[in-house]
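Appendix B: complex inputs.
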Amino acid sequence: MRRRPNYAAGVGSLLWLFVVGLPLYVLLAATLRTRQDYAENGPVSLPDGFTLDNYTGAFDSGFGQYFLNTLVVTACVVGIVLLLVPPLAYAIVRSRGRTTSAVFRLFLLGLAVPAQAVIVPMFYLISEAGLYDNLLGVILPTAAFCLPMSALILSGAMRDISPELYEAMAMDGATPRRMFLQLVLPLSRGGLSTIVVFSALQAWNGFLFPLVLTQSDSTKVVTLGLYNFQTEHGIDIPGLLGAVVLSMVPILLVYLFARRALVQGLMGVGGK
Amino acid sequence: MTTQTTSARPAAGPRKGFRRPPASSATEVGRPGFAWALPAAVFFTLFAIVPLIMVAVLSFMSWDGLSSPQFVGMDNWSRLMDDPVMLKSIWLTLLLTVLGVVLQTPLSILLGVWAAGHQRNRAVLSVIYFVPLLLSATAVSVLWRALLDPNFGIPAEATWLFGDGNLFGEQATAIGVLAFVSTWQFTPFHTLIYQGAARAIPQVLYQAAEIDGAGRYRQFFHITLPQLRNSMITSMILMIVGGLTTFETVLILTQGGPGTDTTISAYYMYDKAFKSFDYGTGSAIALALVVAATIISLIVVRVSGYDKMRSSMEGVS
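Resulting structure:
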């Protein structure tokens, strides 16, 4: 149906490619260059030689431990979300009770509350609970702040299950539990994978809770490691960027192999 | 009928297995009770609602993190009212939020509509455009701090464009950096919103316009833009809430400086609470931020008529 090519759009898209592509080129190229090469020839020039020191250097300065911590946090947050949200969404969609709809409204309210808003009392609560500088102290609030959006996503996906299927199972005398296990869970796999990706991203990229609730190297997560690396060795830019690239590798893998789930998880929508 | 079912319904166990339920209650059988929502509700209350209530209480207290909190009435609030840095931070927050909306909205609409096309070159370029989404806010800020480094960054290479190369030394350029980095980071996300919405516009509208002889630009202004209205409101609310709560970008790129020239309210909250150990004042700022974000979102929804518009979307999407 297109008659002639849209030249204005073509030029505009190339300009934006420059704005997005140049920093990404510098990011990748810098990590393969020595510190001296980067300092002498500037960020935009072509690499003069090749080295992987920046990646091994990142591990030497503790990123191995930080990765491990982030993995633990991410796995636990995803675990908590998967344990709590499916029954919640099931109740939201299927229960006729007033208490349940009040709970749903509570979660909708929670959507509007940013982590910054509660960081001071969170610090107080976590310290009082003796969880300061403990990964569990990061996991619990991070998981709690994943709940509203995950509940919204998953209940949206569960609403698409046709009422006739429930009725058919009800005729056979199925309990809510059996319907949940045999009907609801299998039919909302799309929504489930979206909330897994969504909460994993929140945990992997989380910064404020770890910043305020941890302090030692043994509990440091990757984002905090990047921030500290920058403030402590800000001059070693190739080393710093090597750590940045490493921090995005897991998300890149998800992007390559589960692009749909990632995009939906990023947008916090759909799951269909 | 609805109230009867609230009474605790066991999660398991066969229910009236022998008797076929009467028609009116056929839909009631096998409905989960409140118990299913309970664990999530308790968890969320404990780690989100309780802190939210506590932030309101703490805003009327004085606490240094060591001794126990003391009730001080309106002290924190009245001090904030007279605090020039606080007033400046509100102004800066609004400025950066408005800059974000003004820069990102047109860009992401154009890119989203462009990326909605199914041409091959568009599909390939879109993949690159979305890469910034794979970086955390922290990584983006660290990357740009390195790229814009006064001594080893891009500005030092292009002094004809950037003068002495230190973009962090003056208020105007520092704000420009913050606005630009936010745009670089969040435009792909909003582009995704518009791409999805643009693909959902019924093709018949364009075919009808084509028959009427409307050109590409008239089609864009008279069909595409009006059809994207709902997405614009969603995306703008996200931009506003995101703008009001920007934190990592400021902490990593400018530390609120030079001086307090880029100290936006969310950063000032962190600074007060966790650097000056004045947790009471920090809580007051935090509470003000939540209230402001909620009120502004409600105003946008009300003014735009978004709350009444939902039903009109049905035929379209």
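The mean pLDDT of chain A is 87.
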